[in-house]
Design goal:
The radius of gyration is 16 Å and the shape is globular. Helix 1 packs parallel to helix 4. A hairpin with a 5-residue loop joins strand 11 and strand 12. About 30% of the residues lie in helices and about 30% in strands. The protein contains six helices and twelve strands. By secondary structure, it is of the alpha/beta class.
Amino acid sequence: MDIVHKGRSSADPTHVAKEGSLLMGKITHFVHQSLDGFIEGPNGEFDWPRMDGELSAYSQALTDSADMFLYGRRVWDMMSGFWPRAEEFSTHEHDLAFAPVWRKASKVVVSSTLTEADWNTRVINTDVIEQLTDLKNSGAHLLLFGGSTLAGYLTEHGLIDEYQIFVHPVVLGGGKPVFAAPQQRIDLTLAETRTFDSQVVLLRHERTR
């Protein structure tokens, strides 16, 4: 799988930093959550995110900055069941714009059971931390989409460099939490906050070095 690194300015919060002469990659966790900390409702509902034009434009810029999209198995199943045929399911402007981007993008899915995947996708079954670290060391920017289990696992192993969490003005009253809780305390630095027209609030945190 070829990696083409896209140009980024130092002022761009999605840029890949350089340390000396070595290009350093990173993993960004990109996730929508409710005010009470869930990424799905009690019955798996995901009909509550508010994707207005401003938030849609921001998310498109974020996905454009990535070299690879990263998924756990469950999120991959949801994505691969929708985006290849998104135009058949939705007329939303955001969906129509993102569908061809998704189909073309390089993707990685972490799974202990999946053996292969279509749509330019690499499957990682073993040595997850080592293989993702190798991708980061190659200079790749990986964008992790949701997924509490993989997000918690990578957080526990210190592999996520940046968290972009979008808090939506809704209380779900239960469901799947943002993280399958890491087994240790992890300190972060608040790098940015932003409120979008839809009243969604971005909390962008970076891992404390």
